[in-house]
Amino acid sequence: MDPLLAARLDRSAERVRRHVASPHRAEPLGLRLARAEAPTPTVYVRYPPCLSIVLSGRKRSVDDDSAEQEWGRDRFLITPVDLPLMARVVELGDQGDFLSVNWRLDPAVVAEVASQMPRPRHEADPGRLGAMTPALADAVDRLLGLLDAPEEAAVLAPLLSREIVLRLLQTDQAARLLHAAHHADADVVGAAVRRLDAALAHPWTAEGLAASVGASEATLRRRFRELTGLSPMSYLKRLRLGEARRRMLVAGETASRASAGVGYLSPSHFSRDYRAAYGRSPAADTAELRARMRAS
């Protein structure tokens, strides 16, 4: 790794270690900080539109219908729309921990900055992970530096937000970032996600979902693939499994009740999908998670 890039990431990691327990400082900056001291089981994570960076260790995520990808300090992920991921920490860094930071993307800021720059060249298929650059790492590090100087945030945070967007537009993920500039109300994917959220247990079909947002099935499928890597029905399955897991863990619902509550008609179908996603049966997974919560 480039020494300058490594130094920026190391300094950012130290900032996160100091402030990971202070979300009240991070949230006003659009930041969400995370730390783990051991590899984790697969978890369901719903990312809002954001930039996600690993500062220490490595994680493995599934953000399309089947393929896993492992990434660490040298890569970053942009999620231009609300995206359900299956992810787990697979490796700790040199300091014995895993650290990550998510920064919330503001579509209005992306559109503003993009309008003042030459249109970036779109590579045919750069992959869903971007290559971290020293310039991007430096801008993010200076935003994290405002955790130590909250009194300066009102002036500097808007400037740094625009710089981060500029640096992202100079990476191989520029095309994906530009999708975040679409106004949510005008985008069929955003409209479809809101429909699914509002009626998760509805017996959706791809055709019915497309009709509900005034799009053709082919258009909706293409737009979902471009923005999320998932088909609409795979996206729905992620949402249902994540909500069912939450109901079992938090509300104490049985697998049968939780699966029916999110739209599964067959308990055996739910069990198969759940095991494929989380590697364990619903009962075994819930028991393991509760044990971890009691031990923490």
From TrEMBL:
One of its GO terms (molecular function) is sequence-specific DNA binding. SUPFAM superfamilies: Homeodomain-like. Signal peptide: none annotated. Keywords: Transcription, Transcription regulation. PROSITE patterns: HTH_ARAC_FAMILY_2. Residues 190-288 form the HTH araC/xylS-type domain. Transmembrane segments: none annotated. This is Transcriptional regulator, AraC family. It comes from Serinibacter arcticus.
